[in-house]
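hi! just following up on the protien thing from before. the input was this:
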Amino acid sequence: MRSTSSSPSRSKTDPLRIAAWALLAATALSGPLHLAGYTLLSALPKTILCPFRALTGLPCPGCGMTHAFLALGRLDFAGAYSFNPLVFPLAALTVLFVAGRVPRSVRSGITVNLALLGVLAFWGGRLLQRIY
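and the predicted 3d structure came back as:
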């Protein structure tokens, strides 16, 4: 007899899971590379990686996230926070996602909507900080 589950598990070849693994690998590699004298962002001096910022000149909610993840890889928590404080919950969710352990309550519609409202409030505060 074959058992079925209410939520199918994600395949190991799922593109989103592969992207999450790549993000964690790049973060993990940035620390040793930094200690060896290499920085991943030195290859792109003064390049704006964010298309929203390139078009509008304003930061998006995720601006600084690349720098923040690379700082996490160097265990520079203060630097990661200064680039984008949202890196900590996003990193935690990425690790949980890769491990296949994202709690059901986190995936609920209410939690997702509250998280999106929080990101929008963060972005609004960031924009106001630039103005004043």
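Residues 15-42+54-103 form one domain.
Residues 58 and 130 are 9 Å apart (CA to CA).
cheers
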